[in-house]
Specification:
- The complex is a heterodimer of chains A (about 400) and B (about 400).
- With about 400 residues, chain A is mostly helical.
- Chain A has a domain at about 205-370: MetI-like (MetI-like fold, Orthogonal Bundle), CATH 1.10.3720.
- Helices cover about 70% and strands about 0% of the residues of chain A.
- Chain A has 18 helices and one strand.
- Chain A has helices at about 20-30, 35-60, 65-70, 70-75, 85-105, 105-125, 140-160, 165-185, 200-225, 230-245, 250-260, 260-265, 275-300, 300-310, 315-330, 330-345, 355-365, 375-405; one strand at about 355.
- The radius of gyration of chain A is 27 Å and the shape is globular.
- In chain B, the strands form three sheets. Chain B has a four-stranded antiparallel β-sheet with strand order 1-2-3-8. A two-stranded antiparallel ribbon of chain B has the order 4-5. A two-stranded antiparallel sheet of chain B has the order 6-7.
- In chain B, β2 and β3 (about 170-175) form a beta hairpin.
- Chain B folds into two domains: about 80-175 and about 245-390, MetI-like (MetI-like fold); about 185-240, no CATH class.
- In chain B, about 65% of the residues lie in helices and about 5% in strands.
- In chain B, α2 (about 80-110) runs antiparallel to α11 (about 350-355).
- Classes of the chains: A mainly alpha (about 400), B alpha+beta (about 400).
Chain lengths: ~400, ~400
């Protein structure tokens, strides 16, 4: 019971209105001091003007017919039109993985699956010709594309079921689907074969990137371990491999693979230019990944390995269970950065004559007089496509990093 | 009963030394066998296609034009000299690119951390756009953009009456032009550099002794600069300047810019693309480095009475540098290697000249040479970088 002589603190006053809300925010972030205020006053109109110019160009003079009329070629290159159902089937299978990931991990994975679903619906219903100019897109193509929503839901169901929602199932399923996808694209025995050199478009970029990442990572781990090994012969071999692949531009290596590798292999050795390019990109990326992982291994306190040995773990267990998991966790940003670089580098396969999304577009511009002035639109479109993928990758990387608590102990 | 405790030894198949030697010998034999297999295949393939593996072609005339060169080049020059010319082109792109990309990258990285929300967001957008799009796409884009400029005949783009940019004659800008060998002037410059170094040492000592800021480096640079300028003015007064700034001006057919220094539209696009792409990565490195210095450092420095610039100069930046330098060097290597994309837009760098050479000379030899040159560049950058890195590390004192 408060009496008259008990001191009562006055209720605290709210902060002044100029320090909170959007006014306070603007005072702190836009007009912190006179220089900051000047910068704001000068740059904001400039930015608005630039954005206005860009937007008015995009919706005004820019001519996007090139992109709208040839989606098939941007997606699958010169893959025969009559077999277009094969990549479409592969796409259906991949959607299962997106659905599963969304259900199993939620958060970022769910947002990505949502964006993926929206893009799928847009591709399915927007009015454009998915086939060559003048050829009306058959109804079943749209049906296939919209079918992805069903497989997405199927994947979500699998991911929600505790029996199937295991990381191991997901990884094995992913590998299985990927192998199946490649088999369908080439043509399993009994189907007409479509040689990899006819693959193209965004599909080719994605296939090269996924196989590159899938193989570059384990090779990189082995190289990093080899480089740190006590065995002089193994060490020298790994150092030479890593330094040669890191010291030479990828474009030179690809070009070399085109000229030199056919000479180095026996005549009639069944390796086409796509596989050669894929191998070169993978090894190139593996050399960089190896250096990243080596950095992670060097950053580990030697006490970790010593403690593991003192507990009686054999050497391979010290490496596999103690050192590598911590090392890899610490260098996730660098490794993902390397994978982003790998995805960007898939645009270099034009040097071995492949029609990836960029080169496909360039050949359309060069081969059609009516599109001669549309190169600018083409490059902006291709840049946007690449950007969506690379930005998603770095977004996922940041999330995984936070989830694993990198930088915290 | 007597227990036998004699040590039996580790069985030979589990002995670590045996295992490690077996592993090494097996892997060594496998690699040697694979290499021998590839080399024998290459040898037989070259025999059957009549491409001899040798180095004699280096003394032959290259007799192919190289569109744009830093060194003087004629078609009658040898393959060896053409290699040198192409390697110099790559080196020039690399050095110019490194200097400008570092400058732009540091600015963008610092702006990302600025207190002003607007420009820090602009810098972030710059970084996220340019480092996430393949360099090849960016190069094609800049090239198309530059090709879309007005031509010389239409007037081109002129900045301050000194820089000319148009889609056929390329970029022309002012450049010092030597009238004669400025030997005596160079001697004067050398002398002022010596004086400058002495001044630096003296100012440094004064600063240590008195505690008054004496700006040793600023003083030294001032002395050198003043010496060079005074000598230059004296030479102009005498009547023959060591060099004059040659400013391009429209002349010749259709007003092609004459004078100054001109680079082709391809080289301009290559440099713009490389610089912007690399600077986005450098900006992230700089931002990460500055953020890695704990806040307590700058707070302590402020409470000791150092100003904002002094805190940055003496406390934050030297510590950030230790984090920044190693990845920065690898960006320099990347820039040098990425310059090989010149092939795609038609600038005659090392890779694109080598590609043309393979049509008239043995490819194996050419690849060995360009690999050697790129490795040389990489090692040089690494060496300089590592020396500098050692210089800025903690000395423990």
């Amino acid at each position: 019971m408060a009496t008259a002589d008990t001191w009562q603190p006055a209720p605290s006053m709210p902060p002044p209105r100029t320090e909170t809300g959007w006014i306070g925010w603007a005072r702190a972030n836009l007009f912190g001091n006179w220089l900051s205020g000047l910068v704001t006053v000068v740059t904001v109109p400039l930015i608005l003007w630039a954005v206005w110019r860009m937007v008015s160009w995009v919706i005004g003079p820019a001519d996007w017919t090139l992109i709208a009329s040839r989606p098939q070629q941007f997606l699958i290159g010169l893959y025969p039109t009559e077999y277009a159902w094969r990549p479409l089937t592969g796409w259906l299978l991949v959607s299962i993985l997106f659905g599963m990931a969304a259900a199993m991990w939620g958060g970022a994975a769910r947002r990505i699956a949502l964006g993926y679903g929206i893009i799928t619906v847009l591709l399915g219903v927007l009015p454009y010709g998915l086939f060559h100019e003048g050829v009306v897109m058959p109804w079943w193509v749209r049906a296939f594309i919209l079918g992805n929503l069903l497989t997405l839901a199927l994947g979500y169901g699998l991911g929600s079921n505790p029996k199937t929602a295991k990381p191991r199932t997901f990884v094995l399923g992913g590998v299985g689907i990927y192998v199946l996808l490649l088999l369908i694209l080439i043509g399993i025995p009994g189907m007409e074969e479509v040689a990899p050199r006819k693959w193209g478009g965004l599909m080719l970029n994605l296939i090269l990137a996924v196989s590159g990442i899938f193989f570059a990572f384990p090779i990189g781990v082995l190289l990093a371990l080899g480089r740190r090994s006590n065995l002089p012969v193994v060490k020298v071999l790994c150092v030479v491999f890593i330094e040669v692949f890191r010291g030479v531009p990828l474009i030179t290596l690809l070009f070399m693979s085109q000229v030199l590798v056919p000479l180095a292999l026996p005549a009639n050795f069944p390796v086409d230019s796509v596989t050669r390019a894929a191998i070169v990109i993978t090894l190139f990326s593996a050399a960089y990944t190896a250096e990243n992982i080596r950095g992670g291994l060097q950053g580990l306190h030697p006490g970790q390995a010593e403690a593991a040995r003192a507990l009686g773990l054999p050497g391979w267990q010290v490496t596999m269970l103690i050192q590598l998991p911590q090392a890899i966790r610490n260098v996730i940003p660098a490794i993902v950065g390397q994978f982003i670089a790998l995805f960007k580098d898939t645009s270099l396969v034009y040097i071995v004559g492949m029609l990836d999304i960029l080169e496909m577009g360039r050949s359309i511009v060069q081969g059609n007089v009516q599109f001669a002035d549309n190169a600018r639109e083409l490059f902006i479109f291709v840049a946007a496509v690449f950007w969506v993928f690379t930005y998603t990758m770095s977004f996922v990387s940041r999330r995984v990093e936070r989830h694993l608590g990198v930088g915290q102990r | 009963m007597r227990l036998s405790l004699t040590y039996q030894g580790i069985p030979i198949w589990r002995h670590s030394r045996v295992l490690s030697w077996t592993a090494q010998i097996v892997s060594g034999i496998l690699v040697v066998a694979a290499v021998a297999f590839f080399i024998s295949n290459i040898a037989s393939a070259m025999d059957s296609r009549d491409i001899p593996f040798n180095w004699t072609f280096l003394n032959r005339e290259y007799s192919t034009p190289i569109s744009e060169t830093l060194l003087p080049y004629e078609e009658s020059d040898t393959f060896a000299y053409a290699f040198l010319v192409a390697a110099t082109n790559t080196l020039m792109v690399s050095v110019v690119g490194v200097i400008l990309a570092t400058t732009l990258g540091i600015i963008v990285g610092a702006v990302q951390l600025s207190g002003n929300w607007v420009i820090s967001k602009v810098a972030t957008v710059f970084v996220e756009v340019f480092r996430n799009v393949p360099l090849l796409v960016q190069l094609f884009f800049w090239y198309i953009l530059l090709l879309g400029l007005p031509s010389v005949q239409q007037g081109g783009i002129v900045l301050f009456d000194a820089v000319y940019l148009n889609n056929n004659a390329g970029l022309s800008f002012p450049w010092p032009e030597g009238q004669q060998l400025p030997g005596v002037w160079l001697l004067c410059v050398a002398a002022s550099i010596a004086v400058g170094l002495v001044a630096r040492v003296l100012l440094d000592r004064r600063e240590t002794r008195t505690g008054q800021p004496s700006y040793p480096w600023l003083g030294a640079i001032g002395v050198v600069f003043a010496g060079a300028v005074v000598a230059w003015i004296v030479w102009i007064v005498i009547g023959n300047a060591p060099f004059v700034m040659s400013v391009p001006h429209p002349e010749g057919r259709f007003g092609h810019p004459e004078g100054g220094y001109s680079i082709s539209i391809e080289l301009t696009a290559l440099l713009v693309g490389l610089i912007i792409y690399t600077s986005a990565f450098i900006a992230e490195i700089v931002r990460g480095g500055l953020q890695s210095v704990s806040r307590g450092q700058s707070e302590a420095s402020r409470s000791l009475g150092l100003g904002t610039m002094q805190t940055l100069r003496f406390v934050t930046f030297p510590q950030a540098l230790r984090v920044i330098v190693p990845p920065l060097i690898s960006q320099y290597l990347n820039l040098t290697k990425n310059s090989s994309l010149a092939l795609a837009i038609g600038y005659a760098d090392l890779t694109s000249v080598a590609k043309t050479m393979t049509q008239t000379a043995p490819a194996v030899t050419i690849f060995l040479i360009i690999m050697g040159i790129y490795l040389l560049y990489s090692l040089t950058y690494s060496l300089i970088g590592n020396l500098y890195n050692r210089h800025i590390q903690f000395t423990g004192g």
